[in-house]
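RETRY 2/3 - previous attempt timed out on the joint model. Re-submitting the same 1770-residue input unchanged.
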Amino acid sequence: MSSFPWLTALVVWPLVAALATVLTGAGRGRPASGAASGGGAFSAGSARTVALVGSLVQVALLVGAFGAFDTSTAGTHQLTETYAWIPALGASYAVGVDGVSLLLVALSVGLVPLVILAAWREQGGDHVRLRRYLATVLVLLSFMVVVFAARDVFLFYVVFEAMLIPAYFLIGGFGQGAQRRYAAVKFLLFSLAGGLVMLAAVVALYLQVPVDPATGLRPEDAFLTENLTGLALDPTAERLMFAAFFLAFAIKAPMFPVHTWLPDVTQNATPGTSTLLICVLDKVGTFGMLTLCLPLFPQASRWAAPAIIVLAVISILYGAILAIGQTDVLRLIGYTSVSHFGFIILGIFTFTSLGISGASFMMLNHGISTGALFLLAGFTIARHPRRSQQIADYGGMRKVAPVLGGTFLVAGLSALALPGLATFVSEIMVFLGAYARWPAAVLVAVPAVVLAAVYVLLTYQRMFTGEVGAEVVGAKDLDVREKTVAGVLVAALVVLGLVPGPALDYVREPAGVSVEHVGETDPEPVLGALEGSEQ
Amino acid sequence: MEFEAPVIDWAVLSPVLVVLAAGVVGVLIEAFVPDRVRRAVQVVLTLAALVGSVVAVALLWDRVATDGFAFVVNGTFLLTPFTLGIQAVVAVLAILGVLVIADRTRTGDDAFAPTAAAVPGTTYEDAAREAGLQQTEIYPLVLFATGGMLLFPATDNLIVLFIALEVLSLPLYVLCATARRRRLLSQEAAFKYFLLGSFASAIMLFGIALVYGFAGTVSLETALFRMAQPGGPILELMPALVIAGVLLITVGLLFKIGAAPFHMWTPDVYQGAPTPITGFMAACVKAAAVGALVRVVFTLSLGLDEELRRNLEVGLWAVAILTMLVGTVAGAVQTDVKRLLAYSSIAHAGFLTVAFVGFSETGAQAVLFYVLAYGLATLGAFAVVTLVREQDADGVVLGEATHLSHWAGLARRAPWLAAAFSLFLLSMAGIPLTAGFIAKFGVFSAAVVAGAWPLAVVGVLASAVAVFFYVRLIVLMVLTPPAEDAEGAQDAEVATEGQDAPDLAADGAGSSAAAGRTLAPARTLRRAPVVVLSSRGFATVAIVICAVGVVLLGVVPQLALDWAGQAASFRPVQP
Amino acid sequence: MIPGVAADFSADTIVTSIVKAVLVVVFLLTSVLFAIWFERKVVARMQVRPGPNWHGPKGLLQSLADAMKLLLKEDLTVTRADRVTYLLAPMISVFCALLVFAVIPFGPSVTIPFTDYSTPAQLTDFPVATLYVLACASIGVYGIVLGGWSSGSTYPLLGAVRSTAQVISYELAMGLSLVSVFIMAGSMSTSSIVESQTNLWWFLPLAPAFVVYVISMVGETNRLPFDLPEAEGELVSGYMTEYSSMKFAWFFLAEYIAMINVSAVAVTLFLGGWRAPWPLSVIGDGVLNTGWWPVLWFLAKVWLLMFFFVWVRGTLLRLRYDQFMVFGWKVLIPFALGWLVALATFQWLGLAGVTRTQMFVAIAAVALLAAVIVWLLPERKSPDRSPDDGGDGRFDAFAGGYPVPPLPGQSLPPSPRARRTVPPAPPESSGSPADVDAEETR
Amino acid sequence: MDLVNYLYLASILFALGATTVLLRRNAIVVFMGIELMLNATNLALVTFARMHGDITGQVLAFFVMVVAAAEVVVGLAIIVTIFRARRSASVDDVNLLKS
Amino acid sequence: MNPYVPVLVLMGIAAVLALGGVAASAVIGPKRYNRAKLDAYECGIEPTPLAMGGGRLPIKYYLVAMTFIVFDIEVVFLYPWAVDFVVLAGFGLAAMVIFLALITVPFVYEWRRGGFDWV
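RETRY 2/3 succeeded.
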């Protein structure tokens, strides 16, 4: 099955596409700087087409990868490729996906065409800028695939950090908010600080690998996760390393109290950027907790779990409460994500199959639903003459743009986990899983569902119902391009909500493996309960 | 009296000899070649000599790697694989440095004064400039300095160490004073460098004298051997003598690598010296000095007893921590790009020190890789600085625009240049997929291996702070609009950009760039204070090589790591 | 016995040393008194006039009278002087001048009359005696430099600077010329060098070095034709302009002692020291080289050289400063270097077993070849810096690509500061010292 | 006389030189301080050579002299250039680079 | 007896003489104050201010000084070699010739660049 290097193809292709994008029309754009909107067969304007086609080819590759993936053994890494990369450091280029990784790869690959479509008319009509923006997005896509597919801690770390650079430019260079530079720097510094602390732990971890007595060197593939799993670690060292890893991931998956960069970023970046950033990139944080923290540092994970659960619950509530108070729609969505990430982390640290598979599933769902929210909010904002992001500047949009209103409502409802939508399934799984081990946490967190209803519905009400806002009277409804974007996302939410089974097949087994890694057993067989909860 | 003529293995000396001989020939060229072709001849000769040195190193490689060492006359000149590695790094970096030095931008000027001895601002100087004179003596000087650098780590003889130090320093003192622009600043830099440099070398020399007094020999290894074996010709005052001596020698070496608390000269000198020289200095001198320091310190660690060794280690810890802190904290508040890079180089000295506190081969390997990675990034960065210039209202290109505010929006004027510069900064910051990351990884690994994990943690934290100021500069270049844009969105950017940065991406933030364009001709032609010059090739080549090197070392470092690993071996103390 | 020293001082005590030292000083002081008279008398004879003839027989006491007069003159210290240095300078001069004779051998071992106590006719000697001589001579320059500088006046300052430049320039040539003696003698001890000249005085085989030495010794002592530091016509009295009374006398004294010093060194190193000249040396199987006779030969040789000094002074004109420096740097030093390399090579060939005849044949062959090549080479005129080149008088500050001073025949552009125009001077005088001074004072 | 006294002298001279460098403000004087340090080292080297009965120290002193001479040449050149440019040899006046 | 002791003796006598002479004239000589007498001599005109210290000299002098240092060092190295010429033989000669050649290079440079051209 693994004869074709699907994952490598998925990594390399976006880079090719990025190059093609950046070169398209480069020759013509040059002499009349910025005046490339004039067209021509290969003008800068057609770069977006190239990018779109490129991303669609990527989707096709993804389909191929899915075809090659065997669901029955979703708990083990498949499509693996391993090449020595830097033997001297024990690093190898090792990729492979289990069910969770594959879903997250799918999420990133799937969202990119939508982001590209959504960005079709962004960047003030400057095609050269747009071209660069799209190329950066594609580069980021390549990194995201690697990071989700990495089976080597070093590779993971390298890409984890390297991703910051394109992300940083996406926020700071192509953002729309006035404070985009500030936001970009904040994002970068937060992430780098976490990353560097993690680096220390990575180094320390590497040195835990036993030395080959024959050569006096560490093995050339020392950084493979399977080699690092199950090392006999000194408890203190393990806890320190765990803390370092966790800090980096907690910053990435914005978790209270290191989430503060997030609202600034969402407020200032373009919705497309936010989509990629929050919906995909930040999943690296939770993904890392799941696939690195748990198996590599099982003891420390168990040791830290109570504290983390507390923080997760705080995140859930805190994000939700602050979201209610926001006046800026993008900032608001940012805060909802803090809340949702709290759920994911809660699910992971339940150490139950149900909770972890719920969290895994939620990573996917949250990506889709929040992505939908961001992109639709972006469409809404694009209809405002001043491109205001203030909720108060809108009103009655439902009347002038009914399709927009409808899809926005669906996306919003998915954020509050309305039954029938994908998020509901995962949230309920997390709650059930958590309840088995941390009932108190669930009790405290449940009100967040209510809060979610408040912020979603309140926002919808203020923006889409009532009197039509003075400035948005002439707004048009979604055009075909936008409808495509919205339609795909809403459809995904609904389909996954109604038929979660196939998707859950991908996460169930890895969740079991994770629980096993941590050294816990499921408190009670809860898989039956899951089937029952699905309405 | 019998005298036995020593047998000299010239092949072992060849990497150094090639360079020094070329320097001598360069002086003769200055004397005899007509001035029209002098520059061309000098550049060719200099590059050829440095390439020759690299080739010599390559030819020696197998032999030294097999034998573990090669020496001339009792270790007066001593090659170990590590030394050879440092020599290779120095020679390669020197080639790139010379490329930058030799570059003349489209203004036709290089960075050096037409007559360095002229009093600034006199008619004499103006006449010299109008006559198109050039100070081609810089090439032999660079060669001599490089020769000293090649010799510096490659000796076991302390007095040769001292002489190498002077051979590398003296030409640099002079080179520092030769800037074309800001002559006073340049001379002042040379002056400070000279006074502090001589002071440090005097201190080091006294240390050497003390070691000699203790051991009756200036061979470091023999001296330490004597120390470990009581009963030799040891003076009764000792071993305080040798400890003081070793301390003073180390201070001298630390001064050269710019480690705190002996770093004070670095920012001033880096700022004042002609930028290509600064780049050359920052990259090559650091490599050579670290090489020497590692050699000395490692040899010491083999000879000292447990307690002294621990003391030495503690001292290095303190130096490393202090250096990293000073470099990063002070760097964070700089407003001049050259000073900023200078503080960055101080911080890097700290990271380098972290690498060898454990006296392990891993540390030596890390050092080798680090100096290469750091050298490439630094040289490239300074090369970029040479191309960013001020200009006056008439479009006459002035000196370098080193104030940070001038760098705002550079990415719009020269996207490629800004990209390269960002790449170098990212490498210095240690972002993955650049050379700097692998380098830092190696350094911190070495520290942790040696049990110095607190040092590694401090290093990581310092890196985090350092990232701040690198990123600040990137933000400024890439994200901040140029000063004139900030004043009014439709400022006449185009008038300036026309020739220099055709690939300008107009700022689409809200206002229509097209409007600005149409307005421009109507306004009085206001020129931006900053202009990016196109190089006449050399600097571009250097920048490209540096950038490619930084990326390659970051993405596929295996070759370099293998090489460094092979080189990082030390000859044990001879019994 | 000190290793590397021929003379044997083992019998000397501190008393002997004191006596010898006093004798040396007395000798020097009386010699100077005599030398001044000698010079004036000889120059007078050359100029066909009587010279001093009033005090004492043949005016012999003239110098003593002069000295007395100086001692009784008012001791001035100019207001702008740097007092301590000003006072110290002449003392340094005379102090250093007096020291040189410590290592000069007047003769071999002599027996003190009426005793059987035998001691070398030399104060002391050590393996690096010649180095000591050079050191004393070098430090002596400080007297001149500091004296000129501390006077706080223009002429002395210029004199001092010139003097420094001059002395150091000629000292190099002098030092280089001595090297050949050391190669031949294999020692730097004065007595050993004299010892090594038993068969052959070095001035013959080392004639080129000797010539260089003689020229540079005149330069070193600031004597005509090289007396530029005190050049009366230009700098009044150079570095001693502001001095009077004994301070002036010390400078004066130091200058004459220096002449005796360099002569004595020349005698010791090149002219066989105290050895009797050839026809005399064979008399009685070298009996004239023993006892007190050698002192006579030594003094005779020294005064011969002193006569040479005076002769030169009476004959030659003072050089222009630039000619003087160019002569030192471009002629003497390269020549001395070349000679040194040639000598060393021949000596080494000799060591390696090549016979003299073979060497001479080889030299002749090489010389012939060189001559042929020179003859065959097309005559090419040096393109730059020929005095005739700048005939049009236009001054290009960067002729040939690097900054150059105006050539003879060219004139500087008018100095904006002085608001006066230097008239285009005729070629032979445009570089005259007066112009140099104008340059210097700026 | 005890040879160690020479070492004390050398140390004192060295310390004096170092103090001069650190405290004095005139470039030439600072420079002379450095020279004093070098010469103190020479004294120490020669003394040690004597103590060890070994010629190396004296040879080293030669090397040091050469280096000192080279340093003098370069240093004077720089100081003279600066002096000509601003007519002052005080270290304090050289402060353009302080920021 | 140490061969340097006589030198010290001579130095003592020379110092006494040098000092004594100046002291004697200071004591014996007359003292008649006159401001003009104590002025710097400058051909009867008012003396140039700041001759000392502030006076600037042609750069050539510095050049000579620097060149001198190079050559003086060369000479210093030549002396020991010359004394031991026979012992060092061919190796010494070769080394010294190389050394001289290296010294000659800057000499040639300075010559060609007009460093020895006064006027």
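Chain D is about 80% helix and 0% strand. Closing ticket.
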